[in-house]
Amino acid sequence: MRSSAVVVMFALAVAAVGAAGCQEEPSLLCDRARVVWPFFDIDPRLDTSPDDGLQIDLELRSSLLPGTSVFLTVQGEEGDPVAHPQPAVADEDGDVLFTDVNVPFGRVTFEVNAHNECGDVRSLRTPYVWDGLGFPRCDLDLGVEPAVVDDLAPLSVLRAEHDGDPDQPGVQLQVSIDAGRPDMTVTLFALDPATGEQQIFEEESGDDLRASFPVTLGEGEHALRAVCVWEPAGLRPSSRTARLLVDTVAPDCELVDPAARVTAADDLDPGIDGVQIALRGRSTAPDVAGEAATFAVQGELIDGSAVDDAGESSAATTIVLDPPGAPQELVFALSDHAGNLCEDAVTF
Asked: Prior bond to 258 cis, omega within 30?
């Protein structure tokens, strides 16, 4: 059979293994005969003929007796049912093939009829025949790649670097939805869970198969989701829900110790070469406790303690003054929970 055929399983379930013929008295074999169709859709990629319209092959697998004639009719959304010109005949395996079946676009009902020793067999199936412009979908694209912060999952983070217009309040995004085809009604919902306020945008997808919306999100948590509707088939695919935290404000931070000068009196262990000094930094931001902090002396990184509840981090290091009196650069750095970075640098 032709490999491009749409395979439609036409299965007669039986209660026992045996011949499909009927007895003079009604039998369980006949009483329980039925047809089972799988789900299938059709699109122009299956076209089998250069003639106008869409022609497909329908290949049916069945338990009909070899030589059984099977008749096919095709019913579109409008007009009368159309009989396929030629009946098909079940082969030795019960397989039946209808070739170059003319089908309209839209919702189509296929009906097959056969007659065997058990009487009339009738079954139908109503798939959708696509028009070649694409299949409905609803894929959400924020236009940027939010930051992933393990401790904030499942929220993704939008920071200042994601803002399309830093001169405006909030984060400006150009959100687009890939609808898969050009005639989908696309609705975007942007929810602020803290306030319950919801922005709703609606647009029809264009020739590029997309709908696009400028969206402004303020500081805090948000949820974005799109619903795409295709009226002809009553389909409503929806996108994933993007759960976002907008945090564009960097924390403050300050190098507290050492001050502007380091003297011999600051040496914590005069018995060791160099000057042993304590390092201390502080932040008053509310979302830095538990975060890592670092210090750097002349570019050499030193891990500080995790920021405590008072916003402080500390470390100890040795400064070798070579040559004596040479200026030293000291940097204190930390990030808030969202990954916004703060640095304070001092030369002493």
From this structure: yes
Q: DSSP strand E in 46-134: where?
A: 54-61, 69-75, 82-83, 88-89, 96-103, 106-107, 109-116, 119-125, 128-129
Given the DSSP bridges, would you call strands 156-158 and 147-148 parallel, antiparallel or unpaired? Answer: antiparallel
Longest dimension (CA), the chain: 117
* CB neighbours of residue 239 within 10 Å: 21
Quote the mean pLDDT of the chain: 85
Q: What pLDDT, on a 0 to 100 scale, did the predictor assign at position 324?
A: 67
Please name the residue that has the structure tokens 């089972």.
36
Pairing relation of β-strands 54-61 and 6-9?
parallel
CA distance 348 to 329: 6
Is pLDDT at 165 greater than 90 in this prediction? yes
| CA atoms of 262 and 328, how far apart (whole Å) | 10
Q: Is 44 strand, coil or helix?
A: helix
Q: Which amino acid is at 225?
A: R
7 pLDDT higher than 50 = no
**Which domains does the chain show, CATH number per domain?**
6-129 (2.60.40), 139-246 (2.60.40.10), 254-347 (2.60.40.10)
CB 283 within 8 A of CB 311: yes
Assign 196 to helix, strand or coil: coil
Query: Token digits for 48?
Result: 């089998």
Q: What are 160's two structure tokens?
A: 């200042």
Distance (Å, rounded) from C-alpha 69 to C-alpha 60? Answer: 12
Backbone angles phi, psi at 77, to 5 degrees: -70, -25
Q: For residue 245, what are the β-bridge partners?
A: 157, 221
pLDDT value at 257 more than 50: yes
Q: What is the pLDDT of residues 194-232, one digit of tens each?
A: 999 999 999 999 999 999 999 999 999 999 999 999 998
The values of phi and psi at residue 150, to 5°, are: -55, -45
The pLDDT, as a whole number, for residue 26 is: 45
In whole angstroms, what is the distance from residue 223 CA to residue 199 CA?
11
